[in-house]
Design a protein that fits this description.
heterodimer, A: alpha+beta, 4 helices, globular, B: 8-stranded mixed beta sheet, 7-stranded mixed beta sheet, 23 strands
């Protein structure tokens, strides 16, 4: 998992933050399903990988974790974005937009050149 | 490489952290799995398929857990690495501080590791025999009292035979000391041979690496002479040639068949035995007819499987009663008792070793206090740095962890260096000839010692690492940031009489090192008093060596007497030799005890083996330097076959049987010594007492007879020479070979060496304690000096102010010295109380010195006071030189 490229990892982080920001606290299963739906399996090798991403984000204090009860009445950890996480999300998002704008322009330019 | 190392370390760290975190992850995964399964079931999969699909979707759980652990460990590891780097950078900036701290710790930890290796190797580790807990010593004597060696007396062959059929244990016997066996060849060598009963190897559970051990019938008189040799001898003399087994070697001119080889790591009953012989009672120093009753033997037993000590004791009690029918007097009467073999072997030294362990613990505490003082001074100097860090967001815990990391780094470095010191120390003790430490050959710096050293290094690191931390916790860090130097010293001044944390450490140091110094002083006095004891002859300059004559070739008294006569004559002709003589036993080397009759005061039962009989050649008293008090010394005519029998007694003997001595005299009376001869011997002289049992024992009853009457099989040659007597050794050896080419000498020692090893425990304890006490004193004085110097530096402005306000040099000097003295005096009072309570540990080692010797308890503290005054004079002088104007402008 540590062999995955930094870009992919960064993307996954960003996605988790964005999802939590948009949808409120979620557990690992919910997050994994959500990301699978959006990314069409491009980001998660398997669903377990989500937990590696989550523990990293917890360590960075961008998200927090709390035990709660899942919809099937089982103990599950619910993750929520923190203030620092929102700040990070904003910074990363604008970064990403800038970067994707640059890449987009670059790709549009190339054929005509 | 670096990342690989980091990953490895994080994996290691994760091991310590995982249980709860792992459980949490498992719980999460479990919930996830059930949710997945439900989802798949909803999609119409069968239960089995759903479960399989969930498994695939979730991925490999073990791999995931591993990866999770690694990620969890990373931040902690990073923080530790950061702390480490920071600590190392700090130490590199202060090389002097670092060196002092590490060396101090190395001394403390090293000394501890060394003494611990010895205590562990000798007292704690099980004996190096198979199933050692079932081994017992089988001796006559009482139960052991705590702190004392178990009392024990020998048993006879007859006694052993009475226990051979015991059902609860197997009993074997061996001779306590090795005997000399001369291995024939072009260059005869004297070997260390042990006499054991055939079953001893079986009892100890040792297996030969080649051949076999003894059979029971080889103990019997008249069986073919056989020997088992050690692997060391096999290597040294026979180049590990396997064909040596079943061949014949010459021992003392007689052929012996080698039947087996025992491994090099088997030592019994002494270390470095070269070969073992059966028939334990056949001693060359006793006539064959007395072997069964009177050859002193030691018993060793192994409890049969499932038998308890109590059961064995009960059976032995029955055998004891059967062996001692009322009314019949036996030389080895008295109950046989079983003692664990280990207690018997190491009992004599355990008090000394535990005492040294305590002493070395003190040294470590003193060293730690020193380093703690250093670290505290350093931490105070860094108060601003910490305040800045905490202002920038570092938590208090973060700062403390930094300090602890730094001190652990220091103590680990000290520990590593200390381990080197320890292995040198242990090697020195193992090789020591001063004193025959039991099990010394087993000593090594092993895994347990390594563990112990690491443990004390870490514990000292954490414990004294927290001292500065605690100090930092007290005032708020922000206050410190605001504080200027002036308010700091003001606050200090307000504290007035209180001595503070640093002062407390110094008090502890002073107290501990005072205890060590007093103990060392008591041992030192013991040594001087031992040396001052008049043994009855001048021991200095007397060279001694042992001359063992093999029984096979020197089978008659005539042959032995002729050999010794010859030897004395020839050695006396060696240039530089002033006098030479031959004696059966030198002081402290044992001797022949026997009973006797006095013609004028015959008693029906001559009783105990209370008298020592010494066989000497004429000239003995003159060479050794024993004064003749009455009558005459032996002359050449006394030592001729057929000459009238004469005897010389010592003054104790004369006083005991002629109570009015010297008014009445034993001279002219006659003695009968049955062991020697039944003819009556005339007393011709009385000589001064010699403390034959060593300086700690009173002189015993001694009679001297001319060598010709009863020539020994093993004798000592003693000589005095001009210049260094050791230079005559080669000439002596040549003369021995000139008389008999198969003969050799061994154990070449100065008389003083022999005497020193007789009180070797005291000498060893005195030297080691002395070393520890001096180290402790040095460390304590350095500590005191450090605290004083630091306090003067801190108070520079205050002192400048005082000077400006009119305080003179003397006032400032006295203020600083007084501060040092106050701390010292408190420490001395505590130390005196501690010493008073603890020196009784030394009781059994002291000689003619009380454990609370008044002079020692006054002089040592006085010396301490002088030393502290000297140590605080240096910073005091610096304080007195402070320039008021300069200090105030600071």
């Amino acid at each position: 998992m540590e062999h995955r490229s930094a870009i992919l990892q960064g993307t996954l982080d960003l996605m988790v933050l964005k999802t939590l920001d948009a949808m409120g606290p979620m557990h690992g299963y919910g997050l994994a399903r959500r990301i699978e739906q959006i990314s069409e399996d491009a980001l998660l090798v398997n669903q377990g990988t989500i937990y590696l991403c989550l523990i990293r984000l917890v360590q960075k204090r961008w998200i927090s974790a709390k035990w709660g009860t899942s919809e099937n009445n089982r103990k599950a950890k619910f993750y929520a974005i923190t203030k620092a996480g929102r700040k990070q999300l904003q910074a990363e998002a604008s970064n990403w937009e800038r970067l994707s704008g640059v890449i987009g322009r670059l790709l549009r330019l190339s054929p005509s050149a | 490489m670096w990342t690989a190392l980091l990953r490895l370390a994080s994996r290691l760290l994760a091991v310590f952290r995982h249980p709860q975190d792992d459980a949490e992850l498992d719980q999460e995964m479990e919930t996830h799995r059930t949710l997945l399964v439900e989802e798949y079931l909803r999609r119409g999969l069968s239960e089995d398929e759903a479960r399989r699909a969930a498994h695939v979707a979730l991925g490999n759980a073990t791999q995931l857990r591993e990866a999770h652990r690694e990620i969890r460990a990373v931040p902690l590891l990073e923080e530790i690495m950061r702390d480490l780097r920071y600590a190392l950078r700090g130490f590199c900036r202060q090389p002097a501080f670092t060196a002092v701290a590490i060396i101090t710790l190395a001394i403390g930890i090293g000394a501890n590791a060394a003494v611990f290796s010895i205590v562990h190797g000798i007292l704690m580790r099980p004996l190096a025999y198979q199933d050692p807990d079932a081994l017992v010593s089988v001796m006559r004597g009482g139960e052991r009292t705590p702190g004392q060696a178990p009392p024990a007396s020998w048993i006879s062959l007859r006694r052993w035979e009475s226990m051979r059929d015991a059902r609860s244990l197997d009993v074997g016997v061996y001779r306590p000391s090795f005997e000399d066996a001369i291995l024939g060849g072009r260059e005869p060598v004297v070997l260390r041979a042990a006499r054991v009963s055939a079953n001893v190897t079986g009892i100890l559970g040792v297996r030969p690496i080649l051949g076999r051990t003894f059979r029971a019938d080889e103990d019997a008189d008249g069986s073919a002479p056989v020997t088992v040799i050690s692997e060391r001898l096999w290597e040294r003399q026979f180049g590990r040639d396997p064909s040596i087994v079943r061949t014949t070697i010459t021992l003392g001119s007689a052929p012996y068949t080698v039947i087996g080889i025992l491994p090099a790591d088997f030592h019994f009953p002494d270390r470095d035995i070269d070969l073992w012989l059966p028939r334990p009672a056949s001693a060359s120093f006793i006539d064959k007819q007395y072997w069964a009753c009177c050859t002193p033997l030691m018993g060793i037993g192994r409890l049969r499987p499932g038998v308890t000590r109590q059961q064995a004791d009960a059976e032995i009690a029955v055998l004891n009663a059967r062996y001692q029918p009322a009314g019949q007097r036996l030389v080895d009467a008295g109950a046989v008792v079983l003692t664990p073999l280990k207690d018997r072997l190491v009992g004599p030294v355990d008090t000394m070793l535990w005492m040294l362990m305590a002493a070395v613990g003190f040294v470590l505490l003193i060293a730690c206090a020193n380093v703690a003082t250093l670290l505290m001074a350093r931490a105070t100097a860094r108060a601003r740095e910490f305040a800045v860090r905490s202002a920038l967001g570092a938590g208090r815990w973060r700062v403390i962890r930094q300090l602890v990391t730094e001190s652990v780094v220091l103590s680990m470095a000290g520990g590593a260096l200390g381990l080197a010191i320890a292995s040198l120390g242990v090697r020195a003790v193992a090789a020591m000839t001063l004193f025959d430490l039991p099990r010394a050959h087993e000593l090594s710096v092993n895994g347990t010692v390594l563990l112990w050293t690491t443990a004390i290094a870490v514990v000292t690191g954490v414990v004294f690492g927290t001292c500065p931390s605690v100090q930092l916790l007290k005032p708020s860090l922000i206050d410190r940031l605001r504080q200027s130097g002036a308010t700091e010293s003001e606050r200090r001044h307000r504290r007035g009489l209180r001595i503070g944390a640093r002062g407390t450490l110094v008090v502890a140091q002073v107290a501990l090192s005072l205890i060590l110094l007093i103990a060392a002083a008591l041992m030192g006095q013991t040594i001087t008093r031992l040396a001052r004891v008049d043994l009855g002859f001048p021991s200095a300059g007397l060279l001694t060596m042992r001359v063992p004559l093999p029984v096979a070739t020197y089978d008659t008294a005539e042959k032995r007497a002729r050999f010794f006569d010859d030897l004395v004559t020839r050695v006396q002709m060696i240039p530089g030799v002033r006098g030479a003589t031959v004696v059966r036993a030198l002081p402290t080397t044992g001797g022949l005890g026997t009973n006797l009759q006095i013609e004028s005061q015959r008693i029906a039962d001559p009783g105990r083996l209370g008298q020592m009989v010494h066989t000497v050649v004429p000239g003995y008293f003159e060479v050794v330097g024993q004064r003749v008090k009455q009558g005459r010394s032996f002359e050449a005519r006394d030592n001729i076959t057929g000459a009238p029998g004469v005897v010389v007694v010592n003054e104790t003997f004369a006083r005991k049987y002629w109570p009015a001595y010297p008014k009445t005299t034993p001279i002219g009376d006659r003695l009968q010594i049955p062991v020697v001869t039944i003819t009556w011997l005339e007393v011709v002289g009385v000589v001064a007492d010699v403390k034959h049992g060593g300086p700690t024992r009173e002189a015993d009853l001694q009679v001297y007879i001319p060598d010709r009457l009863y020539p020994p099989q093993v004798a000592f040659l003693a000589l005095r020479a001009d210049g260094d007597p050791l230079r005559t050794v080669d000439a002596v050896r040549a003369e021995v070979r000139a008389i008999d080419a198969n003969q050799s000498i061994t154990d070449i020692k100065m008389m003083d060496q022999i005497l020193e090893s007789a009180t070797g425990q005291q000498h060893l304890a005195a030297r080691v304690l002395g070393l520890f006490a001096m180290t402790g004193l040095l460390l304590a004085v350095i500590g005191l000096y450090g605290v004083m110097a630091y306090s003067v530096a801190q108070r520079t402005q205050e002192i400048g102010l005082r000077r400006a306000l009119g305080a003179g040099h003397g006032d400032v000097l006295w203020m600083v010295v007084g501060q040092g003295l106050r701390v010292t005096l408190i420490g001395l009072v505590c130390g005196l109380a501690g010493a008073y309570a603890s020196t009784r540990l030394l009781q059994s080692l002291l000689f003619e010195v009380s454990t609370t010797d008044a002079t020692t308890f006054v002089v040592v503290p006085a010396v301490f006071v002088v030393v502290t005054v000297l140590a605080s004079l240096i910073p005091a002088a610096r304080a007195a030189r402070i320039d008021p104007a300069g200090a105030l402008r600071m």
